Amino acid sequence: VRLVESGGGSVQSGGSLRLSCEASEFTFTNSAAGWVRAVPGKGLEWIAGVYADGTIYYSDDVRGRFTITKDSAQNTLYLQMNFLKPEDTAIYHCTAGYWGLGTMVTVTG
Questions:
Q1: Which of 8, 51, 53, 61 is deepest in the core (most CB within 10 A)?
Q2: What is the pLDDT of residues 15-51, one digit of tens each?
């Protein structure tokens, strides 16, 4: 099983990024999945998840700014991030019982 995140980068405060997580030898259909971010010195923070029944949850820090979606046809998990803040700077990991290596997001300004 392999989860590969992409879409990270450097953006100014207030900007947007869309992260993708492509899965191989695993299907997001009927599986719970989510996004976790890692901040050096602060550990891991769960930020968004979608359950098998489609129920979606967000952490208080990102609710209203981030949107998690699943594309079953593409077998890809997305995280649309809007109104980014410097404190969103982190390595973002996709997880579904397995973990991807992550993609770095840096928010400046």
A1: 8
A2: 999 999 999 888 888 889 999 999 878 899 999 999 9
Judge whether 37 and 45 are in contact, CB under 8 Å.
yes
Show the tokens assigned to 15: 């900007």
Q: How far apart are CA 93 and CA 109, in angstroms?
A: 23
Residue 92 tokens read as 């973002």
Alpha-carbon dihedral sign for residues 59, 62, 64, 69 = negative
DSSP codes joined into one string, 2-17: EEEEE--EEEETT--E
Residue 4's nearest CA partner among 95, 68, 73 is: 95
CA distances to 25, 76, 81 from 2, rounded to whole Å, are: 7, 12, 23
**What is the dihedral sign for C-alpha 68, 15, 88, 11?**
positive
Integer distance in angstroms from the first to the last C-alpha of the chain? 37
